[in-house]
User: Fold SET domain-containing protein from Parachaetomium inaequale.
Amino acid sequence: MHRPTLPIEGLPAWAHLNDVSFHGVKVVNTEGKGYGVVSDTDLEATDDTSDAPALLTVPHDLVLNAAAVEEYAKEDKNFRQLLDAIGRRSTRADVLLFLLVQTVLASRSGHSAVGVSNPWTEYLKFLPETVLVPTLWTEDERLLLRGTSLEAAVDAKISALDAEFGLVQEKSSDIISWNDLLWAEGASVSFTDWIRLDALYRSRCLELPRSGESMVPCVDMLNHSAAPSAYYDETPKDEVILLPRPGTTGIPKGAEITISYGADKSAAEMLFSYGFIDPGSTADSLVLPLAPFPDDPLAKAKLVAFGEAPQIHVAREEEEAGNGLAAVRWASAFAHLMCVNEEDGLEFRVLQQTDGARQLRVFWQEEDVTDQAGEFEALVQTHPLAAVVRLRVVTVVQEALRAQLERLGSAVAVPAAAAASPQQRREDCVRAAMLLREIETKLLEAAVETLEEERSSLLTDRNVVAYLGLTEAAESGLAGDEVSNEPDDFS
Ligand SMILES: C[S@@+](CC[C@H](N)C(=O)[O-])C[C@H]1O[C@@H](n2cnc3c(N)ncnc32)[C@H](O)[C@@H]1O
Assistant:
């Protein structure tokens, strides 16, 4: 689908028409970051921003979120039909549907029997054509993510977008007027268009203190910085305003005004959502998927009872002032459930309820812990073999992180050697992927080391030594005189 664009020089006229006011700031093209907001005059330093004039004020009726889409549906009965058929699953899904319709309307101005134009129809024309988030990277560029925490996440996202697009296509095709507009008249909307809209939403939505997850025109022109000079807020009238940060030491004319997209986002999250990594302001953390043991007969029941995607979280703590040491923490609630079995006191029972429905219940040491399936780390604490279970968990997590490191290490050369046409990889994608690889390699190495320290310490624990001794004796008894020196298989 061709999305018409307008030069950014036209934005002040659109803003004037829609009661958006700029106060000493303007939107311009910035070096390497697309559009950005710069000061149009010397802005004075201020400690108290409560009486400072807002740099930007956006009326509430321009804020785009689930409530706004619902309002729009009241004015447009055709859109309401579409929203009834597909919408109301999440704010994101509703806004994406709205954006799809508005984009199609913008590309077919005046030729459609359905859809009502509104300020967003025109505003969308000011937005950049693409964002460098990995869902929009070429397959060749995505090879650069192999071994990073984004490898599985991006694949999963593309599959989810595919399913979502299929649903939109199927449900809207049943409505003749929408079938004509979206698919039949030149069959213009493609899967890539849907990925683009998702990327546009992800990279431009923000969390408003009162209105929640929303898109806000013009405020979405602000770039991110580790040392932001401004922040957004909502007034009692629900207008969205941009204010200088308290303590900002004046903003000279021409300087870029920035906000923070969130200080606790990891490099992978920044790349995934915004298409760039600012090493100065990313949390040193990552999240990896964790697969249950393939030969565990309880694996399926454990997954169902856990109820979430099993993961390992790794994060470097803030450096303690002065000592130069930043410890690495890890956590995996599923690994603790994964590492207990029937002989430890875990049991699954399928209970029939009074209405005939069957329900899976989890028992630990004869106690029903169905609601605590994610809390086995704590539940196991009082078990006589707590240290043994912990050793299994530490071993499992360490193995998973080692395997990831190996993939990360061996994959570095793969894309460069295997690429048929490396020159087609965009420089920004290569730079971001390499930075992510470097950040995640360092973090994984530190985590493996931390786990090794805990493992060594657990191997000297009295209960662990006794347990391993018994296991070894049992094994050597079964295997005749052979003595095993490999007490490390705790799976
Ligand atoms: C909310 S929009 C900001 C306006 C955007 N620059 C534009 O052209 O419309 C977010 C996008 O801006 C870009 N961006 C923001 N901050 C950046 C930064 N510090 N470095 C590089 N790109 C940045 C990224 O492409 C991001 O997805």
